[in-house]
Amino acid sequence: MGTISRLTYYPVKGCAGTTVQSADVTPAGLAHDREFIVTAADGDFRSQRRFPVMAAIRPRLLDGGARLALSAPGVEDLTIEVQKDGRRHPASTFNWTGEGVHQGADVAEWISTVVGQPSVLLGVTPEHDRVTSGETPGTARFADGHAILVISESSLDHLNERIAERGGEPVPMDRFRPNLVIRGWAEPHAEDSVRRMEAGGAEFAYAKLCVRCAVPMVDQETGKRSGPEPIRSLAAYHRDPHGGVLFGMKAAVTRPGQLAVGDAVMVHSSVGPIRSTEAAEPPLTATASLPAESV
After folding, report:
1. Is the distance from CB of 47 to CB of 10 less than 8 angstroms?
2. Which of 73, 208, 230, 245 measures 20 to 30 Å from 66, CA to CA?
3. Residue 114: exposure state from Cβ atoms within 10 A (0-12, 13-18, ≥19)
């Protein structure tokens, strides 16, 4: 049996995360996760893929989400009153197009200065309604495609061993920007096999495997590219049949609830054995053979 070792939500898509000891789980993921998005004038989202400096933007939600504080190197901090409703502006991610609530000219100017391109900050609209894809459909706010990203510590440990064999430096978990990190699963990439799991008062189901882009090569502290690791080593051993580099499992929320660091993770359905590092219980055996999906 695994346990939750880290919980992180990302208030602004593409920017730094907030790690917490406990969190509410909503149908769209951890509370406040990807509640805001940075876009160009036409609504196309900004991300670390083109603007790695976004990793160095530190958002903090204050007063229960009523205010948003932003900080970044080289600019003065900014705090805004969050506009829950108001002027609409186009917004889009990979497979979703809709609208967001414009958060005002001051924060648009601040964001534009940091990323070096005209940009606006948008919040989720009250009527936001998005259906996500995958084996288990669900919903999400402004995430790339799904509500929750799950990664086990054993997966990162194994990857860092591979990187060390190539003479590289280990990378921290934040390179992969997970929401749930799980400790205690013995095999690397055990999360790939999970189809249904429960932790705290919440339940999750498999949507698809996470195909990685260039973002894990961005140092999440400095906002600077530092590749080729970890993608170079990961690409050598963990790919999908179409060539995509895999790391982590994307899940839909099937029962909202609450989570806390230390909560036990109970796997109810899996396509492969999920063994504990303590070997306290017999492994969960496979219930079906299901193909992995890529984004």
Report:
1. no
2. 73
3. buried
200: left (phi over 0), alpha (psi -120 to 50) or beta: left
The Cα–Cα gap between 22 and 41 comes to 36
Query: Which residues fall within 8 angstroms of residue 34, CB to CB, at 6 or more apart?
Result: 10, 11, 12, 13, 140, 141, 142, 143
| CA distance linking residue 148 with residue 133, whole number of Å | 13
Residue 68 main-chain phi, psi, to 5 deg: -125, 120
Q: What is the pLDDT of residues 22-80, one digit of tens each?
A: 999 999 999 999 999 999 999 999 999 999 999 999 999 999 999 999 999 999 999 99
- Show Cβ contacts of residue 129 under 8 Å, excluding neighbours closer than 6 positions: 139
Strands 148-152 and 58-62: unpaired
Task: Provide φ and ψ at 37, rounded to 5°.
Answer: -140, 140
Q: Which amino acid is at 274?
A: I
Angle, alpha carbons 131-16-190 (nearest 5°): 60
Classify residue 15 as left (phi > 0), alpha (psi -120 to 50) or beta: beta
Is 287:195 a contact under the CB 8 Å cutoff?
Answer: yes
Distances (CA, A) of 103 to 42, 125, 252: 16, 11, 28
What predicted TM-score, i.e. pTM, was given to this entire model?
0.92
Q: Which residues pair with 180 in a beta bridge?
A: 7, 150
What's the one-letter identity of residue 272? G
How far is it, in rounded angstroms, from Cα 221 to Cα 24?
26
**Contact indicator for 69, 106 with CB cutoff of 8 Å:** no
| Encoded amino acid at 154, one letter | S
Q: Which residues of 197-206 are buried (b: 16+ CB within 10 A; e: fewer)?
A: bbbbebbbbb
